[in-house]
Amino acid sequence: MYKKLRKKIEEVYEMAGDRSRRIKNRRLREESLKARRRKRRSRRRNFWQRIFLTFLTIFILAVGGGKVWSFSEKERGLSVNEEDLVNLRRLHSDNAVLFDMESGEKLAALSAGKRIYPASLTKIMTALIVVEETEDLDGTMVLPSDFFSDLYAENASMAGFLPGESVNRRDLLYGILLPSGAECCLAFAEEIAGSEEAFAERMNAKAKELGMKNTHFCNATGLHNPEHYSTVEDMAVLLAYALKEQEFKEAFTSQSRNTFPSDMHPEGFTFTSTLFQNLENPAVAGGTILGGKTGYTPEAGLCLASLARVNGKEYILVTANAEGNHDTEQFHILDAVNVYNQIGEDSL
Q: Which of 180, 230, 262, 273 is labelled catalytic?
């Protein structure tokens, strides 16, 4: 009796085990079938994607006359164009644009429409408004004392004038463009507009007038502000316009200036262009670098807006976002020499 019962129990367990294995095997078969179906769907998707990309490539080649954008270079704003005068691919700067000064033609560009922080390139606009709105550049003005402590605290670049000093206005203009003096900018801002905020409104109005569509100024110095931005293309448009003003161009292309004697500097003093003090030799292939305005903040990187004459023609180059700082190799200046040398060598 006991043996029969035990045998019956074993048979029940065996049947249960068989059923469990059958269920498990069925699930495995179902999962395998689903996996094969997913694989087939994936293959179909990949097939149609390849067909679509093939037709898209054919369309781009047909419409673009055989000229194609490299996706990595397109993201940087650099077209693969054999007609470009220079190669901007190996610059230290992330953003660059080259213009023919006479014709206004854009000859090469690298992320030229992408927003940048212009740092002290801002002072090109400040100097332009000074030239346009100051009746007597040969007169004198007394520098206010109220903003110097803030400029010292922010470690702003200074020309060397002192609070309360009576200064020749032309010296202040040169102080903006050569040593990048923030005190010169704010002195003019207060004299012309009453405050830096009101002066910035004038700057933005001028930018709009010039068609600088991706530019907004918050201050006259270029000290960092997230809402203070531009593009290298906008800055090139600004520089080309400003260089038509003779007073501006004379200051922009000067290497140094001896200031007039003042009550606090009886013998005057000398300041040097931040470009030329870091440029051992302005000569390039077929010409020379005539002048430039440098800029730097940690957020903006090393920036430069420059003018050169090569083989009898004048060119504007604006670069931004080069790595480095005041204490490193001046990569923005190396980029300018590189580009202008290419222009001269291509003409040989």
A: 180
Which tens digit of pLDDT belongs to each residue from 80-96? 344 567 899 889 999 99
Spatial distance between the Cα atoms of 287 and 127, rounded to a whole number of angstroms: 26
Q: Give residues with Cβ within 8 angstroms of 92, minimum separation 6.
A: 302, 322, 323, 324, 331, 332, 334, 335
CA 336/CA 293 separation, integer angstroms: 12
CA atoms within 13 A on the CB side of 101: 21
24 is catalytic: no
Closest CA to 98 of 348, 338, 347: 338
Is residue 120 part of the annotated active site? The answer reads yes
**CA neighbor of 296 nearest in space, from 152, 157, 200, 181:** 157
Query: Is 106 among the catalytic positions?
Result: no
Catalytic residue, chosen from 111, 123, 157, 262, is: 123
CA distance 330 to 190: 33
Residue that the structure tokens 């129990």 belong to? 9
Confidence (pTM): 0.77
